[in-house]
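Subject: Sanity check before I submit

Could someone independently write out the structure tokens for this chain? I want to compare against mine line by line before I put it in a report. The sequence has 422 residues.
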Amino acid sequence: MSAGLETLGPSAAPAAVTPDLDGPPPNHPAESGAPVAQAPVSAPAGGSGSPEADGTSGARRLSARFRKHIGTAAGVLILGVLLWRLGTGVFVDGLRRIDGTTLTAAVGIGLLTTVFSAWRWCLVARELRIELPLGAAVADYYRALFLNAALPGGVLGDVHRAVRHGQSAGDIGRGVRSVVLERTAGQAVLVAFGAVVLLTQPSPVLTQAREGALVLAVVVVCGAAAFAVVRRRRGSSGPGRHQAVRAALVEARGALLARRAWPGVALSSALVLAGHLAMFVLAARDAGSSASVAVLTPLALLALLAMGLPLNVGGWGPREGATAWAFGAAGLGAGTGLTVAVIYGVLSFAAALPGAVVLVVRWGAALRRPREEESAGGHRQCDDSDVTKEKYAPKASVSPARSSFPFSAAAIEGRPMTPDSV
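---
Independent answer below. Compare away.
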């Protein structure tokens, strides 16, 4: 739940999930035993052994590795700075304060937020003409939340959910877009509500938020004017270049703003956000903070917005840094803020633990399925061989041959005949 707020960014391409965590999808060729066609691999233009090609490929691999691990490294760096400035006692104190009642409440809140998130996903998928039952969506969402919390980056669970849903639906593109649009809807509600609260309610960033909003408004107006001027000068050459972007925007508008979709999407997103805020208040109360809900709401929104940054280790990193700074700036103590963030992270991980059960169950089912099919296929093969042997075996001659020479037998004996015998 904590790491499930991140959107699918450019680094979360479908190809990033190479291993199948719960086996191949039901209609995947690897499961049915059919041969999988392999695309021909073309040789590089510069030659595989040329120094220029080797240098270019090495630089690309190094750049890809750097982009892949930059988020994890940033999360580790943030946690290291917090440990250096506040010490490890804050983390230990946060873990000690958690009891069974708090964990039970967190699991209950996590159940509600997961069900409403899965409902939002079903609404978006329906508008994209993809069938997605609510029960399967809840299970897949739980699995994605657990993978988000357990794996570095905080977004790999959503990537896995998108690719697996696309494979099972027979259209990976639509499956990925349904997850991207569903996450975008949640982030849009978070940003809109956060902007209203941070611009109107007292918070450590009230002045900065108002100044930033003014600058952002000026940038948006200038950008819109520049876009209109450029589009008018280009005339008819623009639509061809922006056709893909325009089609994507039309599809997003149809999926999120359709008459039968947007009320449910807005309601579910608001309820999910309320669940996250309730989890934060629960963590603050467990940490010993007596601040009112009105005071904690802007701080919680800052923490949730920081969680959207892809610079974390399983959701840990920016959330702790933002919460410690916000509590310190609000006069509530940076140590208390870090304790709240630690408790929130543990509660969110506990709320996502049912996803581990879903992952193990589906993994086991995927491992048993090929064995059952192999056993059933073996029985069918034996039956077919028996029928083939009995029905299509070569027939023996009815009467024995009267001679041992092959060309001297009569025609009724089933032996070849010579022209003389005819």
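---
OP: Matches mine. For the report I'm noting this point. Confidence is low (pLDDT under 50) at residues 9-19, 29-48, 384-422.
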